[in-house]
Amino acid sequence: METIVSVKPLLAVLVTLFVIPVLVSSSGKPNARESWIFIAGTIKLVLILSMLPVILEGKQIVLTLFEIAPGASIAFRVDGLGMLFAIVAASLYIVTSIYSIGYMRGLNEHGQTRFVSFFALAISATIGAAFSANLLTLYLFYEILSLATYPLVTHHQDATSKISGRRYLIFILGTSIGLVLPAMIYCYHVTGTLEFTTAGIFADQLSKPGATVLLLMFVFGFAKAGIMPFHTWLPAAMVAPTPVSALLHAVAVVKVGVFSIVRVLTGIFGVQLLGDFNLGVVVMTIASVTILLASCIALSQDELKRRLAYSTISQLSYIIFGVALLSPQGLLGGVIHIAMHAFGKITLFFCAGAIFVATGKKYISQMSGLGRRMPFTFAAFFIGALGVIGLPPTGGFYSKWNLILGTLEAQQTLFMLVLLVSSFLNAFYFLPIVYKGFFGKSPDEDDTTPVKIKEANLCCVIPLMITAVISIGLFFYPTIFVNLIKVGLAIK
Amino acid sequence: MHWPIDMIVLTFIIFCAIAAISVKDLLATAILFGAYSFMMCLLWAVMGAVDVAFTEASVGAGVSTVFFVAAVFRTSRRTKD
Amino acid sequence: MKFLGFIVVCLTGALLLYGTGDFSNWGDPNSPASLHLSNEYIERALEETQVPNLVTAVLADYRGFDTMFETAVIFCAGLACFLLLRDFREKKQRFYRHIPTGVILHVKNSKKVLPVGREFEHIDKDWVPSDLIIKTVCRILVPFIQIYAMYVVAHGDFSPGGGFQGGVIFGSSLILIAISYDLKILVRRIKEKVFGIFAAVGVLIYVGIAALCMPMGGNFLDYSKLAPLLPGDPHHVRALGMLGVEIGVGIAVTAVMVIIYINIVSEGRLEEGL
Amino acid sequence: MDNYPALIVVTPLLAALLAGLAAWIEDRLSYPIALMGLALSTFFAFKVLMQVIGSGTIHYRMAGWAPPMGIEYTIDLLNALVLLLVSGIAFLNLIASYPSVNQETNDRAASFYTIYLLFVTGLLGVTATGDLFNLYVLIEITSLTSYAMVALGDRDRGPIASLNYVFIGVIGASFYLLGVGYLYLKTGSLNMADVAHILSGIQGSSTVLVGFILCMLGIWIKMALFPMHVWLPNAYTYSPVAFSRVVAPLMTKVMVYVMIRLMVTVFGLDYIFNTLHLADAAVWLATIAILAGGVMALAQKNLKKMLTYIIVCEIGYMVGGAWMGNQLGMTGAILHIVNDALMTFALFLAVGNMVYKLKTIDLPDLKGLFGKMPWTMAGFVLAALSIIGVPPTCGFFSKWYLLLGALEAGAYHFAAALIISSLICAILFFKVFEICFFESLAGGHETAHGVVEIEEAPVSMLIVSGLVSLSIIVVGLYSGTIVNSIILPFLK
Amino acid sequence: MTDSLPYIVAKYNYWLYVILMMIGLYAMIAKNNLIKKLVGMNIFQTAIILFYVSIGYKTDATIPIIQNAHGGHDAHAAVIHAADYINPLPHVLMLTAIVVSVATFGVAMALAVRIYQRYQTLEEDELRMRISEE
């Protein structure tokens, strides 16, 4: 495969890192600070997009920074998969930045400079993870992301966030140090390399039980992916301000976890090896359990953000599920779900945040009739919900369609059922909200609320409109993402 | 080979050592310790280590004991063990 | 603790005894320890350094680097004792004795200092009349001890002795003054500061001589390169260098011994002692 | 100039004496003299390192006598590296120490600097020397100075801690001296290279075996390997902070260096691992040390004391790595000497800043420190992450080599201990972070306008703290270079 | 008995040093009084010095000071037999060791005085009690 050496990936990672000192120094001037974020975010996106044509041609961009040991270096390699993830993350970063202005100022939150700084650090780490050329680099950015997110999760600095933060760390850091690190070192010990290659790095060093254990260590170890039973941090982390939940817990953090698992499955083990040892089924089973259980739990949640969180947990497992199918269609469907779910879910989170900003309401049971007061928000919510359920005309349909085709292709009819059932469950826990929002009894019709509820401020509403529109747009034009995946995973 | 003499000196050294760490009066310890050092220095002189013996005579039996007595003077003389 | 200590001690003893199994016999002239380096030193030292006392030759020349640090250790000890114990606070109470009458004055919490001299004298809390015999004997002995100490330093090249032993002896002579007379008399005669300076200067003489060899074109401590600076027989340069450092050691050790003593005995107040 | 090796050690010694003398004239003179001495020493150390990398091992004959007769400095890559580390850290610490020395030992500042310099002289000498007995004398200098320093710290507990340290320290040094005596009895020589040469012919001797065990025991006591660690926590906790900042990172690390030097240069790895069968026992001991250190650290309520137990734990890393019996383990151990020195130094620098401002560092007193001392805490967090072993800080990379070494040697218990200790350290430090981060605002939310007043330590302390914390990352990223250009050539 | 006697005689110095060392070590570990521990420490160190001096000893050899050297520069003309003189190297080492031990002893004494000033006792158990009381 043709490779090009370029510093662009490094720059793309660093640009939001270097803006942090600027942010800190302009902490007294919110407007200046926010414009710096935009500039950095835009530069980042432009840098990433400028690499797009090259990648679509089937080339890869590589850059080796530090050689730690033979076969283990800190290096970037941009391929289709990473590019897909980077585009999603970087573009949503800009949108979220607009949104967080509205949200944070709307609620008059404290420590905004700290917030935006760590946000920038987190997005840097996300892009770094997307462009990682090997497991070591991926692990590095994975850990940075874990730590950078901690102050964001615990932003409120109160007792609840302390407990959530503790849980977040125990699960995320505990699994990555306790499971991924030894597994990674073992891989290096056995093979002498950690480079992602399509064929996998193992020749015949692994026995089936060994491979299973190693695989499970990775799958559970990347706990950001929210595979049960290592998922409980995710609902807990919903105490964070909504922009954090939106970008990080719908897009960046959890997707980095999923992305890591995808990388390990496709780049470290290799589709071939997984197929030989029949390990795909193992992963699929784990993913299916998570999908179904999480959906059921989501049904019982009254707090909107928590319901979204459980929905996220189940949707993340779709991606792993798809990859574990090991068939081209399944891979395509799984990976493209990274993008599709991202746009859908971020819309939902934005809506949840906008409702909170406008009304201060967190519970679904209080939201009946709000849709008539906040029509744009609830319309966007509807679109987002469709995307997550997987119905046309949203991008979510495209990925779910491919996933189902994948199960057929891999002749796993039983697992197709899982998908269908869970889609129904999705519909059950989302659509009632929309229905009640538009057609339910409105609270201020009784004049109990003196202040008339209206839409949240523009900075909140515009982003969610944008993401909703993109979500629909992806139904019609998924080509770029599809091509990227085909290039990245060498699928015909 | 004058090992009988050596033996006697050595026995005396061990006696002094044990006595120094077991008497209950620290001043007596100081004196026994001085005696111990002096015996030691005799032994070394016999072995031909004149410089070492000289040093031990001036340091171990001399100055160290003085320090010891000074410290006992400033602290307590009695001890339980 | 006692039992545990006993076990540890027995284990260590067993280990050491196990090690002795393979020793050569005591005094065996053919043991490896007595052959390899030892012979080289014995046969070459006199020729190379012109110092008949092999211990001094090895101590101050072949392994002079060790000795330099040994002196530094001594300096450290002095400094450490000073740091740990020296107490600059004014003492709350003072005792004076009116000599003609023998009345003892006890001054409490007062800044006032009585003129010490013919009428009054400083005394310790527990006044013990100084014994004339001891005083006189010591007064006679001290100069001889000091001369002997200097002899030991200077003659270290030819006979047992050297800077360290000489220094200790000189130090003990000063300690003897402190014991037989009074700590205050010693401290008044030779200020504490002087001891401090001497301790540092002593080590500095050693390090200085050693370092001087470097600009003279040799390695550190290479006395032979000092030949142009020294008068007399060029063969004796090394011996002279050694004498120089021994004097440094002597000065440092003297000062440090006194510093340790006066600080311990007076709990750092330098007022009353043994 | 070819006198650099001697000058590295002699300059601080001279400076110590001059600083002591200058104090009699004018107290303020001693600080600049001390600073100059260490600056020169660092410069020489750097020169020597460059020279060694360029043209190989330097042999410097003291007094011009050929090696077995006279004392020789043998500076190879390992020495040179540790020399630079020691002098550099001592120098940086001296820069940062000025305010805290004035605060803590005001009337004795000059004596403090003198003893400090003598201590550094001792460490440098221990590192540079190629003679077994010279090593002993220099160990005694470092010990004697530390006894004095420890007693200078806490008025009540300092002397007791110090006297305990004296007893155990003397036992350690005496064991080492005895070991050297046993070796001397068998070889008739004291020069390391010469002894090694003679030893290779008499490997079966029980005297050599006992000599070896005694040397190791002595050094282990001096470095505070687990059951022999009892002196360390109290001694380091109660010493003045300016001193604990230098003794904590350097003393134990230099002793580890001595151990490696004895193993590699004097006894030879072949003798240790092929003739003796003690390696397993030593690795087990190290494993226990790691776990015990971590667990004991958990029980502490004082930050400084907690860190001292972490030192005990880290010593286990290095001992285990060195005794692993393979190149990877040894590489890890040597790399960890550098890394651990830097991390511990950074931690103690931060502690120093806290002590300077707060006067106490019992954990509950650290409330709200993130707000009050953000820069100090930033340094502290970085160093703590490095101890936990998060990439790209240097702690991760030495752990990487240690783990690889453990896997290669089949010492899975050691690998497990490493992972567990990482987790324990994570718990430990996040416990501290939680206190510093949450407790300040326990009363409720603060608005963006209610800025917490910043009370930072003096600039000199902050700059040093920042520099060292950054160097943790830089050294981490360049650890491949360090390994390839210094450690591997040394081990070959 | 007649066989083992020469064996014992040949090494008795080494054995006795072990005994002395054990006495010293025992005192350091088990004694309760700090000053006693210090005495133990000194015994321990002198035992090691005894060991070194024993290494240096050679039968039928004299002290390591070259005789007839006062004659001047033709001294080196006379052949020096290594076997005639005792090994000087251990003596040199032990001079240093003695100095180190007296230095340590001095510092330790100073520490003991400091501890006594503060706690009015030198017994370890009482010290521990006083500390835990505070």
Question: Quick summary of this structure?
Answer:
The complex is a heteropentamer of chains A (492), B (81), C (274), D (492) and E (134). Chain B is mainly alpha-helical and 81 residues long.
Features:
heteropentamer, A: 492 residues, mainly alpha, 18 helices, 74% helix, B: 81 residues
Largest sheet of chain D: 2 strands, antiparallel
Distance between the termini of chain D: 28 Å
Tally of DSSP helical segments of chain A? 18
- Please, what is the average pLDDT of chain D? 88
Multimerization state = heteropentamer
Question: How are the strands of the largest sheet of chain A arranged?
Answer: 1-2-3
Structural class label of chain D: mainly alpha
Helical residues, percent of chain D: over 70%
Number of DSSP strands of chain D? 2
Q: How would you describe this protein?
A:
The complex is a heteropentamer of chains A (492), B (81), C (274), D (492) and E (134). Chain B is an all-alpha fold. Chain B has one domain (3-74). Chain B is built from 3 helices and no strands. The longest helix of chain B is centred in the C-terminal third of the chain and has 25 residues, at 50-74. The termini of chain B are far apart. Chain C is mainly α. Chain C has a domain at 38-87 and 130-265. Chain C has 9 helices and 3 strands; from the N terminus they run ααααβββααααα. Chain C has helices spanning 2-20, 32-49, 54-62, 64-85, 132-154, 163-180, 183-189, 192-212, 237-265, and strands at 93-98, 104-108, 120-123. A 3-stranded antiparallel beta sheet of chain C has the order 2-1-3, with no helix packed on it. Chain C starts with a helix and ends in a 9-residue tail after the last helix. With 492 residues, chain D is mostly helical. Chain D has a domain at 277-442 and 451-492. Chain D is 77% helix and 2% strand. In chain D, strands 1-2 form a two-stranded antiparallel sheet. The longest helix of chain D has 32 residues, at 327-358. Chain D is globular, with a radius of gyration of 22 Å. The two termini of chain D are 28 Å apart. The model of chain D is unreliable at 441-450 (pLDDT under 50). Chain E has 134 residues and is an all-alpha fold. Chain E has one domain: Helix Hairpins (Orthogonal Bundle), CATH 1.10.287.3510. Chain E has helices at residues 4-30, 34-56, 89-119, 124-133. The longest helix of chain E has 31 residues, at 89-119. Chain E is elongated, with a radius of gyration of 22 Å. Chain E starts with a helix and ends with a helix. Chains C and D meet through α1, α2, α4 and α8 of C and α1, α4, α5, α6 and α8 of D.
